[in-house]
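Methods: holo model generation. Sequences were used as deposited, without trimming of termini or removal of tags, and paired with ligand SMILES retrieved from the corresponding compound records. Each pair was processed once, and we did not select among multiple samples. The sequence and magnesium ion SMILES for this entry were:
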Amino acid sequence: MAMYTQRSTLTQKVLGYGGLAVVLLIVLIPYGYIALTAFKPAEEIFDVRWLPRAWSLDAWRYAIEFEQFHVYIYNSMIAGLGAAVLALCVAVPGAYVFGRKQFRGKDVMFYIIVMALLFPFVLLVVPFTILWVKIGLYDTMPGLWLAYQVFIIPFAIWILRAYFAELPPFLEECAMVYGCTAFKAFWRVMLPLAKPIITSLMFLAFLVGWNDFLFSNMLTTGEGPRTASVIIYVSAVGGERVEWDVLMVMTLMAGIPPVLLYIVAQGQFLKTFAVRGH
Amino acid sequence: MARQEALHPAHTLDISSALPAAAASRPRTAGSERWLIWLFLLPTVLFLVLLLWLPFLQGVWMSFHKWPFIGEPQWIGLQNYRDLFGAAYFWTTMRVTLLYSLSTALQLALALGAALVLNQSFIRLKSVWRGVMLMPYAMPPVVVGAIWMYLLDPDLGMVTHYLLSWGIISKPIYWFSDPVWAKWIIMLVASWTFWPFMFIILLAALQAIPESYYELAEVYGANPWRRFRAVTLPHIRGAMLAAVIIRIAWNLAKIEQPFQLTGGGPGYETSVLSILTYRFAYLSGDFGMAFTVGLLLILVTFVLIAPFLRGFQKQIKQARRR
Amino acid sequence: MAENIGIRVHNLRKTFQRGRVQACRNVNLRLAEGALMVLLGPSGCGKTTTLRCIAGLEQPDNDDAIWVKGRNITRLQPKDRNLAFVFQDTALFPHLSIRRNISFGLDMHKTYRRAERRRRVNEVAELLHVEDLLERKPHEVSGGQAQRVALGRAIVMEPDAFLLDEPLANLDAALRVEMRTEIKRIQKRLGISTIFVTHDQEEALSLGDVIAVMKDGEVQQVGTSHEIYHHPANFFVATFIGSPPLNCLPCHVQTDNGALNLASRAFQLPLEAAGVASSLRNQGEVMLGIRPELVAIAPERPDTVAARVSLIEPLGSRTIIILEAEGVELRAMVQGETSAREGEAVHLRLDLERAFFFDNAGNRL
Ligand SMILES: Nc1ncnc2c1ncn2[C@@H]1O[C@H](COP(=O)(O)OP(=O)(O)OP(=O)(O)O)[C@@H](O)[C@H]1O
Ligand SMILES: [Mg+2]
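and the model returned the structure below.
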């Protein structure tokens, strides 16, 4: 990747590092504070100070033993994984066709799909709830997986299509001359080539499931597969006194895994998001 | 040579792909592939039709009804629309929706600044900083909401505490229920949460600018500002427009944060259109009205992104010609 | 014909966009078993389309267009044709090692056991001098090596025919010459019918047992290098082949007291003496085409043409002299050097006996 290596003047460096510091502080101050809060004993929540006077794991113990928060974390994980697998099974073949094959009505269809990106999904909650109850998907994990697809598929197709389109031309044709059917050419050649982008979309799709609140809240009940997001919402807004220290533990538990995923797959994401204006 | 790139094709989100590909590569399809094409398209089309477009059309149909949660729907024509436009809260809602979408501008400013800084060659540990910056966006919005609820809490929140002790405010402000502050707060928290999305898109676009352009600009003696105007900006304009479009649409459509922080109140002061939809559907049980608001939301979204969409298409056409 | 036909293309028609683009109007080719045919023609004349139709990557409009070894394969799937196609940009599979690339076809068909497949790959790799690269990935080899690998992938299949679409176009000049010799040698050795597409005439002339010259989706002429060069079927073939290009001079045929003359702005030459009269009698306007090597500087005589030397291009073994006669530009080519100087007035002898004459429609007279 191009990185302009000019001789940087001192002013530039000062400005650059200064800007970096400002942005980092904007992000890190809130996180730092809540991370420390998670280690404060309950009675210390009421005075504003950074370092706990006495470090304590009470809040963690409470979150796990009493609130059973790890169960909801597990639910979130399954929700994310299932959503990702389902999304890719649907989107990869579709995107492949949009990226590399010609057929009538292709452009219109692609427009319609990409338009779905801009759709206000809150509108779907009502019809989904009605329909899910009717067909028995309400309050089930597969019901969640299915619902998430409306977020993921348009986005996945948009990104995957561009990727497939940019793979070298003639590869499938070559494979077909050397003994593949059209399907086998996709399976043996194109799919392995798309592995990096598929991995990063897996992450992104997983995060959709992990992070979602709207559908998990509307399509599940306390009995069913509630995800961590919903529990956090309930703990923060749900009526009586808020146990801030416990809530901050939960935010850390729900918030850190996706951050770790992002960090692991960073390079990949950056490439995925490289928007070409040209 | 082209082979070199073959293994590492630029994995790019091709925004020009949003336009019909005008015979970019020559269409070559043998008849035997027909079945594959339709088979591969089937799941995608099925999913989107069944999960998106049918419910949507059903919703349009509902918006012409009085459609209670329990009981028979009743055709009332345009009555929902008349009621909506006649209601006092309608204009409150529109105002706060516009304000809320302004968050996009804030996000863009922060994202552009951060991306430009991180694109400087002298900065070390780039990937660490990049990871840190992505944190707010990577976490569930509800998590970020909860964090800010805590930080902004009027009694024990850090923000109130410091503002008081520095003498900026004289008594605690109930940020989420204050009629003046609530709408600004949801806007600011949304900006804080979602700016990294733009950041990552802009950074990727910046990194894709060939170095030679800058060298050329320097040879011609352009100062940093001129270089930014002449080289950087034209190269990232497409990415900026795309990011703005997506962000506007998603900001308007996502409800979890304002829902969590203020629940749409006080009154209707923070009931952006998506929250209003939600309130009608789940608090009043009036699905017809909920969809009427939802359709309006779609309309507002398109009105807001239309100018950017135009700019974006112009951008792509220019790129094509080059 | 008694000989075995390896590949036969019969009245091939291929249109795109519901008939709006005619890539192949009516292509007919016959290639003897084991021979090498070069398809030559300007860009867009339908060479690639013809080849793709043969490989099955494109569906011809007519049902009896493609025959290989006496079998009509027009509607067969590409994978069932047992043909090998080599693409211009090699189309090696980036995620597979060179070995797996070469054995791709064998792996797909699984006719042979693993050890046998391995043995064959090694054999082919040796033949093509890529045996040291087998464990590398395609992006780790040079352009010429990649092209060899692409060839290897074709050869290892022992196909009924090779189809090569400008396989050398991406290579630099020296490598091209080397590779083309090698391709020819390997083709001869394996004796597999081959169609080689190029728009480089030197490549075509040096390579082909037979050359088929195409234009606008139709075959203009099929013949050996010698035939194509010295006996072009029409004006297009004559001008398309040859470097430096054919001199073209619009003339008219005059009858003077029963004697036939060829007249143009620059000259008036007796035809009878040149022994080409018969076919030109009764013609009015004709196009004279004469190869530069048939134009020579000579002492003045009644049948020479006055001209002025405007430029000299020495090419080492040959020299091209660009001349101007009454506003008409002519090229002469001589072996070695020339004593002529730029600006000098000279006289030219045109070897009309070996020149070509074309009517208005471009047909040879
Ligand atoms: N899929 C297609 N759709 C529309 N037109 C096509 C298609 N394929 C080829 N053509 C047209 O058919 C004609 C012949 O194309 P072809 O690729 O066979 O030419 P070519 O002789 O191989 O040229 P080149 O030397 O440039 O490779 C061209 O005018 C081309 O534009
Ligand atoms: Mg071609």
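The pocket of magnesium ion (ligand 2) is lined by residues C 47-48, 165 (CB under 6 Å).
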